[in-house]
Design goal:
Elements: H1 2-18, E1 26-31, H2 34-45, H3 50-57, E2 59-65, H4 74-88, H5 93-101, H6 103-120, E3 129-135, E4 140-141, E5 144-145, H7 152-155, E6 162-165, H8 181-196, E7 213-219, E8 224-233, E9 236-240
Parallel strand pairs: 1-2, 1-7, 2-3, 3-6
Antiparallel strand pairs: 4-5, 7-8, 8-9
Length: 243
């Protein structure tokens, strides 16, 4: 998990430096275990290098999609590890193994991350708004119904907004088209956030982003990191780039 977050920060820092956008606010959209990578990165960066601290302080919004948040209960983290190892070992073996071996660290993260959010909320310039999306359908693999992979009680941080998506764990981050209700829920949130952070300009008709930025995604569905471009419009975010 530490390796994933270090890679995330390095690539994101390089892209921002290359495009002269080092002060631009960052919105993270993280699926499943990718959310733990982001949370871990923000916690570790708080006591890391000056560059990591500056980058972390630019993270102003996070949308978690089916990310397990288990608090300080090591037993629950161990159970989560067993669940992911059983269902998704083949799709993301390194991160699943890491989850199993570091349940104690994850238990600490379950306390440190909410504490970090509370601490940063005291300073408006670096406050982080969070919304947790949780799955509404059971996951079926190989014809077997595995119930909810990450239940609402785990996917949602206490005290932060939560939104139900009509999808299972694997498809909570996949959308059929722009008319997909799940897409509308997520893209609508991202557009609101972009406007709050001053990254889109007001105007009549269809609003467009004032810039095109490099965006990094983390999560088991994307097999680690993905660098691409995003363009924002009032009809939603259109994502491009290599997968």
């Amino acid at each position: 998990m530490d390796t994933f977050y270090a890679d995330l920060f390095q690539q994101l820092g390089n892209e921002r430096s290359k495009t002269s956008t080092t002060k631009r606010p960052i919105i993270l959209v993280a699926h499943s275990l990718g959310g733990l990578v982001c949370a871990n990165g923000l916690v570790d960066a708080a006591s890391g290098s000056k560059g990591d601290q500056e980058l972390a302080n630019c993270v102003r919004r996070i949308a978690f999609l089916g990310t397990p948040h288990q608090g300080s209960d090591k037993a629950r983290w161990a159970e989560t590890a067993r669940t992911f190892l059983k269902r998704f070992k083949e799709t993301n073996p390194e991160l699943s193994k890491d989850l199993n071996e570091k349940s104690e660290k994850l238990a600490k993260l379950g306390v440190q991350f909410p504490s970090l959010l509370s601490s940063r909320a005291q300073t408006p310039e670096i406050q982080v708004d969070v919304v947790c999306f949780y799955e509404g359908l059971t996951t079926k693999l190989g014809g077997v119904d595995f119930d909810m992979i990450v239940k609402e009680s785990s996917a949602c941080l206490p005290g932060y907004p939560r939104t139900l998506l009509d999808a299972d764990h694997q498809n909570i981050c996949k959308f059929k088209d722009k008319d997909d209700i799940n897409y509308k829920r997520l893209s609508g949130l991202l557009m609101r956030w972009a406007k709050e952070l001053g990254t889109v300009e007001e105007g009549s008709g269809k609003q467009k982003a004032t810039h095109e930025s490099h965006t990094t995604f983390a999560g088991s569905n994307n097999q680690g990191l993905q660098i691409g471009h995003n363009t924002a419009t009032m009809s939603g975010f259109t994502f491009g780039g290599s997968r």
